[in-house]
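Researcher: Last one for today. Full complex below.
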Amino acid sequence: MVLLRAGIYILAAFFTGLFLMGLGRKITARLQRRYGPPLWQPLYDIAKLFSKRTNISHGLMMDFSVIILLGGTLLSLFFLPNPYFKDFLASADIIVLLYLLLLPSLGMALGVGEVANPNGSIGISRALIMLLGYDFTLLAVVVGLSLAYGGNTYFVDIVSQQGGSFIHWNLFRFPLFALAAFFATLGMLKLEPFEVMVAPHEIATGPMVEFGGRYLGMLFLQYSFALFIEIGIFVNLFLGGGGIILFTLKVISVFVVGVLVNNIFACFRTEQAVKFFWKYPLVLSLAGIIMVMAGK
Amino acid sequence: MGIIKILLVPLAAAFLLLITGRTRILREVLAVGLSGLFLGLSLFLYGHETSFSLKLFSFQLSFSLNPLSWFFLFMVSFFTFLTVIYSARFDYQKNNLSWFHFAFFMKVFSMAAIVLASDLLVFFIFWEIMSLFTYFLMVQKGGEKDFSAGAKYLILSLFASVVFLVVLVSLYFKAGSLNYLDVSTYLLRTNLSYTVFVFCGLVLAFLVKSASFPLHYWLPDSYSNAPTTFTAFLSALSSRMGLYGIILLIYILFSGDLSSFRLSHFVNLRYILGVIAAFTMVIPTFTALMQDDAKRLMTWHSIGQGGYMLLGIAVGTPMALAGGLFHIINYASYILLIFLGIGAVEMRSGTTNLNKLGGLIKKMPVSFLAVLFGIIGLAGIPPMNGFVSKWLLYKSTIAAGFPFLALAAFLGTIGTILSVYKFIHNIFLGQLDGSYQKVKEVPFLMQLPMYVLMVMVWALGIFPSLALEPISRIQMFFGREPLSFSTSGVALSAGHLNMLTINFVMGAMLVLAAAVFLIGHRRIIVSQYNNYAAGHFLDEKTKYNYNYHFYPTLQRFIDSCNKEFINRGVDSIARGARQVSWFLRRIYGGNLNYYAWGITAAFLIIMGSLWFY
Amino acid sequence: MIKKPLTQQRAWQIVLNRLRKKSLWILHYCTGCGAIELPPTKTSRWDMERFGLIPMATPRQADILLVTGYLAKKSLKRVILSYEQMQSPKWVVGLGSCTIDGGMYWDSYSTIKKLDEYIPVDLYIAGCMPQPEAIIAGFGELIDRIEKGVACGWKDYYRNWRWYKINQQKVLGEFDTKVDIAREAEFYRLKNGSKEYQRKN
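Model: Here's the assembly. Have a good evening.
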């Protein structure tokens, strides 16, 4: 029974993420005054990638890295407060979740390293430097929020304190933190101003340079789960979580705002991205922390 | 009596190895056997509380075994054992290693005596002996590099020792004895300015030894100059002696009560120590990013991670203290693992220069796994043990109301992640150079400690109670409330940490991911020259990797901030001392006339002064 | 004509072909002047993304190699390298008249005249250069061929790689792409063809 519910949860997260990817491409297309691909295009992409007859690999570490990538993301899925599967949420600590999200990236970075292509290594180096920007901002927001709740970092508590009507959402109670966390979420999802890790024309898609066929399929699969998890973190922290329909609607709306930002901005260079994070979102969260401490 | 036995073992080992050092087999067997005996004795003493004292001249020297001593003693003995097994097959490029082993075991003996001391005089005596033998372990080849490394260490050590001695002498004359209990009762009665003096003096001495900012400049040069096995041992344990001193100072001598020093929530000695810890966590970790030598990179991390332990000790709540103490043993386990890996790479490839290595994963998979586990632990990523101790530290600093210290801890972790990825990428990943085609894996005896430590790192991650149990005994010994923990995590009123759940779900999800990936999967493994190069043809002569300046953005930024005042200052003091000693050396010119005149003059002066008084 | 029986293998291939035709990725390698017609095809006016066709950066990720226009011998060497690095199933589309018979450069010393001798081509799109509507019509034809399962140029390459290599080396001399074709041919379990010194028709 537990397995069945866990399976339903994984499938629900997968299809939500897939829908978001397709919606993103459709919205981008409509903004550019054209019809885009069909909504379920990412499903066809993943199916095509998994159906490749050759899969070229550079070594065992590359195989393991893809497994660790998907496995780690699925692991983080179970520690996110969600309306489907609540069994493991007793250990859902926000700091644990944010560090669990680093495990799949590390796995992929090792696999990309084995590929022995400098484009991949440059992409990973850029991604890690940007970690300094968005991850630190998000951690500062988490420190501020938990300080406001008395040092409590239990995620389910943070969500349940926003119960009641939507006035109680942290979006309205802590607007500075919300703004900073929104940019941090954009950075974590590698949406447009912060997409330098994957610059397709400069470093040949960075870490994905030698990933093809089934390996690239696993990357796409992981991206759909990552979308669900990372937007889910923002929704739980600031928009109050909720039941199945409400949660999905909130996730979709946050993603739509993100896609609109994606289409307006060009890509920052690595140092511009890090400087942006340290100048604006981080200052906002530090100001928020000082306000919280003054209020205590 | 147990204390005498356990102290005699490394002493006996030192002298035996000095005598038998030339014959390799005898030396290795003796070393492994005696350190195994040492480990066995220390395990046997778990839970005992004994003490021992002897009278020397008019001083009472006392030793005692309490939970804190046991914790450090176990660490010393366990990691000595693993190091000795590893160094049995390590290639030191020297034939006569008797002096090395003698210095090593004397150092182990003095470390054991320091933690078993219950008297500040004993502590100081063995502190000095330990510093002396650390110096001998560091300098081996002679020459300019050895001199600067050794000189930096000696100057700062001597400075610390002098400060310590001053405080010691004043305490002896004021408190009458140097026993910990007597000193702590005296310090409770005396006035505020004297306690501040004692605290600041001792903490300065211990901060130098544990290499906290801004007194940390001696560590990278000195430690990376030693042979890699000893660097491993030194990084893991030697700097923690300074931390032992600080724990001793705050929790035994001052009984954990620093509230008389506070002016407000933020202006008190705990917070100042926390700020020092914060700088120590951030600045050395980002300096480590830019290093080009594998050993230097990791020794900068020794400094940085010491900041985490200091943070835990400074904040002082049950969770923080448990986190800091847990971090000590975690750090020792994974840094030893990483250095064993570096030693293996150095032995086989001949270099530790990060710009020259690359691609060794295909040739040395066991070393790669060892370094990988060490790195996941160092970066504090679940499921390894580093994550548990760091989680305890983060949560406790937020709960204690110090958000900026928590932010510094987070920043330090991100810096650690960056530098360890550069480390593992430049050595094991990337393109394999043609000159390393013949590299093989290291012998099994060297792999054995790596396996043991890998198991330890993961086991402590799944079941942190294995270490939290002794730590809670330490907390109760200090008279403070221990952290409530469960078998596989930490139980709190809201939000547990359950490492077993995390590992179990991780295993299940890895199996699921593997199933999704591997069903129907057929793949070809191709050579590294079959690679995307924008249409360019690759071959053995093309260097196609990205090692140099791995983080160019950060490099530019950090270079502009790095002024290195203190480092240059200490360098110039070292050079000045050398000039003075060269000058003074000329007194002994070998000329008999001057000696005769000198002796006659000295004799006359002494006779004259005796007659006048 | 006898219809082949519907085995499980063939049914699975039919399903896969129907999925593959909906998402074809083009290697973004603009080999010649015909590539000028690609940006209008990609962008808003003649939107080829609605068919699932998007450009990708590296050969490992791409399905279609688009040879856009004339191929100088220097470019041919790199095109062959990119083609061999691509993962199967893969298709080559020759865009423009130059790939069919030399086109405008029919008497040049430095271009090749028949692309088909060097890498197997699945579809030609004639024109100099073909307009975006023609390109989209051509891709539509390729999509139909993929669905029917008749676009198998890559299998031809692995069956007859010795013939292709001889042709390539006649023009380019000895060169080593570091791709072990014999091993890959065995991997695909494709038996060697009979095209030793004959032309395919």
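The domain at 8-151 of chain C is CATH 3.40.50.12280 (Rossmann fold). Residues 132-148 of chain C form the longest helix (17 residues).
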